[in-house]
Amino acid sequence: MCYPTPQELGLAARALADEHPGEVRLRQAGTSRAGQPIWVLSVAATAGPGGANGPVDTGGTADTADTAGTAGTAGTARGDGRDVLVVAGAHANEPVGGATALSLARRLLRDPAPRAGCGWHFLLCADPDGADLHRTPRPYSLLDYHRGFYRPPGPEQPEWAPSLLPADRLPPETLALIALIDELRPVLQVSLHATDLGGSWVQLTRDIPGLAEPFGKSAAELRIPVENGASDAAGWPSPGPGIFVIPQPGSEAAGAFHPEDTRLSTWYHAHRYEGTTAIVEVPMWASDLVDDPAPHPDPRGALRMLAGRLAADAALVGAARERAGARDRPGPGPGPGAYEDPAAAPLLRAVDWTLALIPRITAEWTGAGAPAEATAAYIASIDAFGRRLSLRAAAMLLRVLRAQGHPAAPGLDRLVTGWCEEFAARFGARWIPVATQVEHQSRTVLAAYDKLVAADRSTGRA
């Protein structure tokens, strides 16, 4: 099983809609910056509490950006039925989400119980342009994965753009996602993400009581480590292993290692309609180091060492970026300084964005707020996070230099190769088959919905 491309996702979704015309609907929710369709696949609610038979009609518009002005105001009570929105492909380098979305849609057709009174909607690829630039449908190693690596800078990521840009500069992918949330008012939004190497974890904008048990059971059955000290969730409340709740505003941990304000992202847009967002992470390669709960003997010493290594690695990439010279700077059009390869400009924007993040991160690791106590899993997660930052920047820069036949390319190629080999060896990287990644994400999405509904019933909200 390979990771599907945006085009393959669209074709598969069209076939599913043709096979089940009374239950499944495919429509275009928007258009990317490069003119690609952004597809939404909807599976109808069945008769149940608050539900009705028949396909969900969500307006019939060709582009949800055109309907943004018709959405209800913040805090409007939801209607009798429920809706779930599953977002795939928000990060171009995390392609498992599209496969999971299709798998979930098929599963809901086979077993319609979760559709009782609830429509399910799948944004198949939130960033099709970015996905086209990340060219590794079936990576055989970390090196193979990084040969075609691409992850856009924060302002170009659909979910993060609202935390970094003013409203009048949001990309069309973000506008399509926001309009879809406004239209559906989902009780649950699930964003499907992945990590290159590590374990699985879930981030929540609000706690979903009881989710840790089915999540942990699925991970254990599928031999996927649970990431107990995820660097993305440093210091966040954790109601169970691998489950992290984003802190409330004002918490010192709220923005740990993030240049963005998480609460301005599209994850929190669902809160306008009393919805909850779950971010489900699954690894491509597993490492047992990230679920070691033993206390680390010297967390601050380890963080100082990791910060020094990250700064040194970033300096190597930065030097390669400078050696690339003026001809490797983005140009306005044909002529000197312009690129023949259209991928070069977005790749270099991503390189520069990544390198600019690193000084802030190393300062946090060595600052007064560095933890005096931490688990071995947490330090391992920080170790992996630092390695991937410099490696990603180097890999994207290498793509540009190789395409141009630049004399700096061979040296950078050796650096990327060595870093990939060291990364895999240090963490004992073990490939998780794509089908297994999909199965774990699918189970976690369904468990999140089941536990959320149960919690609503216990409080009288359902």
Automatic annotation (TrEMBL):
Disordered: region residues: 50-79, 321-341
Q: Signal sequence span per UniProt?
A: none
Q: Name one Pfam family in it.
A: Peptidase_M14
Q: Which SMART domains match?
A: Zn_pept (SM00631)
Q: Where is the composition biased (Low complexity)?
A: 54-77
Residue spans with biased composition (Basic and acidic residues)?
321-330
Residue ranges annotated for the Peptidase M14 domain, each copy included: 3-260
User: What is the name of the protein in this document?
Assistant: 3-hydroxyacyl-CoA dehydrogenase
Originating species: Streptomyces amritsarensis
Provide the taxonomic classification.
Bacteria, Bacillati, Actinomycetota, Actinomycetes, Kitasatosporales
